[in-house]
C-alpha cells in the first residue's frame, strides 16, 4: 500500500438547501495526503469544514464528490475496511449514561465486530486511567473521565488511524498531560494521529506536519518548521545597560519599549538585517547588555493564512 495513512482527492461536500437556507458547499475540492506514522494537525477557524471532513472520514457523512482512501481502502469500494481502519474521539461528550465504563467499551467493540476473546478492555481502561472506575456508570463520571472514555471507545478496534477532535477543549492540565502522554505512546507504537485543536501551541508542539483549511478549501499543507519559517516578520529584543534618552529611529523597523527596559525591534527579514539594527543601536550610543531574537509562532502563521482580505 501507499506510505500515506489517508489520501483525499477532490473531496467535496454540499449540504442541500432547507428551511429557507440556501445550499452550502462545506468542502470545495480538498486534496490531502497524511503520512503513515505521523502526528498530523488539521487546523482551521470555526466553519472552515474540519468537522465535515472528519465526519466523512468516519463514515458519518456522505461526500458529494471525490475519493477517500484510509489505510489503502477506498471508502466507495471497501467501506467496512476503511471504517475499521480509523477511530474517532469526538468533541461532544455523547455516551449512554446507563453503561459502565467497561460496558461502554465492550459494546463499542461489539459494534466493530471484535470477538470477545480479542477485546482489550482492561488494557484500554488502564491506558486511559479508568481502571478504578471500570464498573462505574458513565453518568457518574466527571467530564474529564468521560472524555477519557471517549478516547477508549475510539481505540477498541485497534485502528491504524486515530482522529482527536478538539480533545483538550475545557479539560484541566492533568488530563491534558495524560492525554498527550498516551498520544505519543500510541504514535510510537505506529498509530497515525490526526489532531484538530484551537490550542495552536499544542499543534506546534505535537504535530510534525499541519494542514490548514479555510472556507472549505485547503490553504496550506507543510511541515511545522516550514510553516513557521513562512513569515517574514521577526523581532530583535535588546536589553540596554542603561535606559536611553530616546528610542532610535530605523527606517522600516517598528521600535517599542517593553516593561523592564528592553527595546523591541520588529522588522522584516527581506528588508532589514539584524546587523543593520545593531549598528543603528550602537550609533545611537546605546550599550547592549543582552540581545535575543523572537520567531513567529504557529498562531501568527494561522492568522496570516486565514485572515479575510480587506474589502476593496
UniProtKB/TrEMBL annotation:
<dbReference type="InterPro" id="IPR017871">
    <property type="entry name" value="ABC_transporter-like_CS"/>
</dbReference>
<protein>
    <submittedName>
        <fullName>ABC transporter ATP-binding protein</fullName>
    </submittedName>
</protein>
<keyword id="KW-0813">Transport</keyword>
<dbReference type="Pfam" id="PF00005">
    <property type="entry name" value="ABC_tran"/>
</dbReference>
<dbReference type="InterPro" id="IPR003439">
    <property type="entry name" value="ABC_transporter-like_ATP-bd"/>
</dbReference>
<dbReference type="InterPro" id="IPR003593">
    <property type="entry name" value="AAA+_ATPase"/>
</dbReference>
<keyword id="KW-0067">ATP-binding</keyword>
<dbReference type="InterPro" id="IPR027417">
    <property type="entry name" value="P-loop_NTPase"/>
</dbReference>
<dbReference type="InterPro" id="IPR050763">
    <property type="entry name" value="ABC_transporter_ATP-binding"/>
</dbReference>
<keyword id="KW-0547">Nucleotide-binding</keyword>
<dbReference type="GO" id="GO:0005524">
    <property type="term" value="F:ATP binding"/>
</dbReference>
<feature type="domain" description="ABC transporter">
    <location>
        <begin position="6"/>
        <end position="240"/>
    </location>
</feature>
<dbReference type="GO" id="GO:0016887">
    <property type="term" value="F:ATP hydrolysis activity"/>
</dbReference>
Amino acid at each position: 500500500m501507499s506510505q500515506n495513512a489517508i489520501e483525499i482527492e477532490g473531496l467535496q461536500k454540499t449540504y442541500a438547501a432547507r428551511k429557507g437556507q440556501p445550499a452550502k458547499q462545506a468542502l470545495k475540492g480538498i486534496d490531502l495526503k497524511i503520512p503513515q506514522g505521523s502526528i498530523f494537525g488539521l487546523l482551521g477557524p470555526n466553519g472552515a469544514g474540519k468537522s465535515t471532513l472528519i465526519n466523512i472520514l468516519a463514515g458519518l457523512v456522505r461526500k458529494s464528490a471525490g475519493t477517500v482512501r484510509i489505510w489503502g481502502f477506498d471508502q466507495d469500494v471497501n467501506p467496512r475496511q476503511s471504517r475499521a481502519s480509523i477511530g474517532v474521539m469526538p468533541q461532544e461528550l455523547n455516551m449512554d449514561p446507563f453503561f459502565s465504563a467497561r460496558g461502554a467499551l465492550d459494546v463499542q467493540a461489539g459494534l466493530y465486530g471484535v470477538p470477545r476473546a480479542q477485546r482489550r478492555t482492561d488494557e484500554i481502561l488502564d491506558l486511559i486511567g479508568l481502571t478504578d472506575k471500570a464498573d462505574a456508570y458513565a453518568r457518574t463520571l466527571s467530564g474529564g473521565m468521560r472524555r477519557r472514555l471517549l478516547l477508549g471507545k475510539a481505540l477498541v478496534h485497534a485502528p491504524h488511524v486515530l482522529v482527536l477532535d478538539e480533545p483538550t477543549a475545557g479539560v484541566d492540565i492533568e488530563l491534558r498531560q495524560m492525554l498527550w502522554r498516551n498520544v505519543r505512546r500510541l504514535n510510537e507504537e505506529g498509530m497515525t494521529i490526526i489532531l484538530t485543536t484551537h490550542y495552536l501551541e499544542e499543534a506546534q508542539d505535537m504535530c510534525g506536519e499541519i494542514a490548514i483549511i479555510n472556507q472549505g478549501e485547503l490553504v496550506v499543507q507543510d511541515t511545522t518548521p516550514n510553516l513557521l519559517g513562512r513569515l517574514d516578520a521577526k523581532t530583535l529584543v535588546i536589553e540596554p545597560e542603561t535606559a536611553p534618552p530616546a528610542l532610535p529611529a530605523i527606517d522600516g523597523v517598528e521600535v517599542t519599549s517593553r516593561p523592564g527596559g528592553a527595546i523591541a525591534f520588529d522588522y522584516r527579514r527581506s528588508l532589514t538585517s539584524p546587523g543593520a539594527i545593531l549598528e543603528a543601536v550602537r550609533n545611537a550610543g546605546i550599550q547592549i547588555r543582552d540581545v535575543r531574537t523572537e520567531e513567529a509562532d504557529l498562531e501568527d502563521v494561522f492568522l496570516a493564512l486565514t485572515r479575510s482580505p480587506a474589502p476593496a
